[in-house]
Structures are given as structure tokens and as C-alpha cells.
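Consortium newsletter contribution from the modelling node. Members have asked for a concrete example of what our holo predictions look like. Here is one, prepared for the iron/sulfur cluster complex that several groups have been discussing at recent meetings.
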Amino acid sequence: MSLETAKKVVLWLVENYEKEPKDTPPSINFFGGEPTLRFEELIKPLMVWARDKIKLSTKKEIRWGMTTNGVLLDETRLKFLSSFPTFSILLSIDGAEKSQNIQRKMANGADSFLLVAKNIPLILKYFPNTTFRSTITPKTAGLLSENYFFAKSQGFKTFFCTPNVREEWSEEATENLVKEVSYIIYNQYLDIIRKAPNILRFLLFERELKKILINDGTDIKKMNHLSCGFGVRSVGIGTQGEITACQEQNTHEKNIFYIGHIDTGIDPAKHEKLLNLLNQKDVIENSEKDLCINCPLRQSCSSYSCPSTSYDLFGEINIVNKMRCKWLLLNNQLAKTILEINSKSSKEDQNALINWMKGK
Ligand code: SF4
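And here is the predicted structure:
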């Protein structure tokens, strides 16, 4: 993307924000590929230009963020980014040495772990709330707890991981995943009940825990198809200014996720067509027929589902594949189990977990 196009994107975003200013200011996230490859000639001059030129009527600041593998971040760059108080980093890292080197090779085939690892202390120095974000594959499922405790030992506070649902998962790999997640959750979250809450937060599990606590054991009531934005709350912008409802999707005009261009804005007809596809079914479906009918997560599952993955795998955007389904149910089941254990402890100990969650 040229700097000129990037500036147009910022102006378009701000213009849309100003039509109906909200409490939440506009937010821009750099992603790739690897965004830091364009740090000097795109990211830095764009952010400086925006800081000097853009003043929101609400006096709020644009929020900035970046999804990065961290390899090209150094102290000078991190210092610059941290001069923007709203900047945040999502570190895309697949784990400790073994997992990272299995999954993330450099372009020349070399290992990448040491290149990232040397930057972690610096990243956390400037951005202590950086999330450690991993993709789990069948090859690394059995290493998940090693990766989690590596992240914890480095000083991260939040851990997000998700299985790569586009891969085939054997029974053995799935079992490994179940064992590893269960081990992490029992090891960490029972510590809260034991009043030693020095934990690395496991985000999806906590979402399930909170949902059950807040809704008194029942699933949340409201469907939310738009957790990923979908051209309503967020868009992806391609290198030539193409607007897509999902940043994962390609920017070809014929793609159903293509909804416009930065020069002409969102095409309402294209966008409506896509939203109608999303809304044509009032509940999600599983790729394994009829599994959802009596599922406790039936109402909320769509807010975790990924229309882009669904479309690529099944040619429809409301279908959850069996691995994502297992992953959601596993986290939900673990949340119920932890709460059951908690309910058998003393009143004081029960409150330790509830109060800790309320504070999150
Ligand atoms: S968790 Fe699985 S079974 Fe339950 S609603 Fe979602 S896809 Fe269907």
C-alpha cells in the first residue's frame, strides 16, 4: 500500500466516524503479511501525519494497533510506537522454541524462534499488555502447555490460542489438545480458588467462565453475528484501497467479501447482499449435521464462528466446522467443571474466583 492510499484510508475512516461520533474512537490495525516490513516508509510517516493533521471533534485519539511476528521490532521502533498512548500489539507467535520452529520458518527455511525471543523483553517493556497469540496445529497440540508456560515465564499477561480449523485433526491430535488445555486450566484457575492468582489469562476459557457466571449458568441470549465486524464495525483494506468485510479475504472484485473501494466507499448493494447471506439462517449449523439442535451454546456460537473460514471450507458463511465446535465446547465444559469444583469449596474460596473474574 502506498502512503497516499493509507492517508486516504485514514481520512475515509475519520469522515465516517464524524458522521455519527461514538464513545469508541476510530481504530486502525496494521496487519500483513508482516506489517513491520513497511515500517519506515509507511507506518511511521502515516502515524506522524495523522497525529499532526487529524483532530477528532470528540477530542479522542485514533486507536492504533498491529498484529506482528515481532522479528523486526527494535527499541527505536517500539519507543516510537509507545509515544502513541493508544497503540497496542498482538504478538503472533506460535510458542516456545519447538513449536515456533516447526510452524514459523523464515523465508529461507531457517528457524525463527531466537529472532522473536530476543525481542520479547523489549516488546513487553514498552507494551506490557501485549497478548501472546498462537495458532495450534495437530503437530503442536501436545506442546500447548509448554507454550503457555513459556509465555507466562516471559511475563505475558494474556494468552490467546486457537486451533487451525482448516487442517485435518486426527483423534490423537485432538486428544492431545484436550489434555493440554485441561492441564493448563486446572493448573492455573484452581490457583485462584487457592488464592494464588498469579496466572496468565487464557482468554477463550475466561469468556466462557464469565458468560456462565454472568448468566447464571445459561448461555447468553442474544445472537451476535457481528463479533468480527463484517463491514459494519470493521473492514479490511487491501493494498490498493479495496474494502472487504473481512481482512482475511482476498480483494478481488468478484469475491463476495469485497464490498467497495476507498475512493468510492462501501457499495450498499454489495454489503447488503453479504449481510443477507449471513442473516439468512437464524442459527449456526455444524458441518456434522444436527449436532447443534440441543447444544447449550446454540445461541452464542455464531459470535465465535468465522464467516471467512466457513465460506472457504463450505461455500456458505454460517457453518462451524467440527474442530472449531470441539474447541468451543471444550472451553465451555472446562468452565463448568471449574465452577462446579468452586461450588464445593468454602464460601470464602468461592468468592475468590467470582471476585477475580468480576475484576476482569
Ligand atoms: S458449539 Fe458446535 S454443536 Fe454447539 S452450536 Fe456451535 S457448532 Fe453447534
